[in-house]
Amino acid sequence: MTQAHAVDPVRVEHLDGGALWHVVLGGTKGNVIDRALVDALTRVAIDARNAPDLRAIVLEGERGHFSYGASVPEHLPAEVAGMLRRFHDLFRAMLDSAVVWIAAVRGRCLGGGLELAAFCQRVVARPDAFLGQPEIVLGVFAPVGSAFLAERMGRPGMEDLCLTGRTVTGTEAHAMRLVDELADDPTAAALAWARTHLLPKSASSLRYAVRAARRGLAQRFLAEVDELEHLYLEGLMSTEDAVEGLTAFLGKRAPAWRNR
C-alpha cells in the first residue's frame, strides 16, 4: 500500500508503510532547480528527519531528465546571494535528515542537478544519461561540486568535471566512480536496492549509522561550503566575466571574455 502527498513542486510518495519515500522533482521544464524547488525539497528533508520509520529516499526527476541544473536568472547579482544560501541550506538539511538518499538518474543531470544527485549516498543512472558540472562554461564555479565531488570520485575526477565543464555519459560516470550502478530503469533499481539492503534494518539504528558514516564528511563539507560561498559572492561575482558569462547564456550568444 502506498500513500502520497504533494509538496509543490516536488511529488512525494510514501512506500512500504513509510519506510521508503519516492520523491520526484518537477514544476519546470528540465526540472530546473529554482528557489521554489529548493524550498520544497528542503521541506522534504526536514520532514524526513521527523519520520521515525523512514530508512531511505529515492530521488528522481520528471519527464525523462533528472535536472538541467540551477536557475541561471537566479544566479545574477541581484538574486545570487539568497539563492546560493538557500541551495546550500538544502544540503545541510539533507545531512541533518540522517536517512539514506538514492538518486535515480536518467537524461540530463547537470550543474546543481549533479551536485544534488552526487550528494546522495548512492547514484543509479542509465548508461545513456548525461552528467556534468558545466558552470565554468558560464564563467562561474560550482561550490557544492568543488567541496564534495572529490569525496565521491577522487580529486582528479572532480577537477576534470569542474575545470573543463564537460559532460560524460552514465557509462563514463560509472567508470569515474561518480555513479554507483548502471540500470536501464534506475528508479526500479534504486527501489530494489533500498528494499534489499536497507528496509530490513532498524530505522533508528540506520540513522545513527548514517550520522556516523558521514560525521567527518559533514564537518569538512559544512566548513568548506561556507568558505566557497564567500569566495563565490565576494570574489567571483565582483568580476566582469562572471556576469558576462551568465548574461551571454541567457542571451543565447557566445560570451566575450575580458579575463577580469
Brief write-up:
With 260 residues, the protein is α/β, with parallel strands linked by helices. The chain has one domain: 2-enoyl-CoA Hydratase, Chain A, domain 1. It is 47% helix and 17% strand.
* Residues in helices, as a percent range: 40-55%
- CA radius of gyration: 18 Å
End-to-end distance: 58 Å
Number of helices: 10
Largest sheet composition:
7 strands, mixed
Name of the top-level CATH class: Alpha Beta
> In the residues, how many domains can be counted?
1
Strand order of the largest sheet: 1-2-3-4-5-7-10
Q: SS-based structural class? A: alpha/beta
Q: In the CATH hierarchy, what is the superfamily? A: 2-enoyl-CoA Hydratase, Chain A, domain 1
On the 0 to 100 scale, the average pLDDT is 96
One letter per element, helices H and strands E, the order comes to: EEEHEHEEHEEHHEHEHHHH
Structural features, described:
Helices cover 47% and strands 17% of the residues. The protein is of the alpha/beta class. It has a single domain, classed as 2-enoyl-CoA Hydratase, Chain A, domain 1. The strands form two sheets. It has a seven-stranded mixed beta sheet, with helices on both faces. A three-stranded mixed beta sheet has the order 6-8-9. A hairpin with a 2-residue loop joins strand 1 (3-7) and strand 2. Helix 4 (143-153) runs antiparallel to helix 5. The longest helix is centred in the C-terminal third of the chain and has 21 residues, at 215-235. The chain is globular. The N and C termini lie far apart (58 Å). 42% of the residues are buried. Residues 1-7 have low confidence and may be disordered.
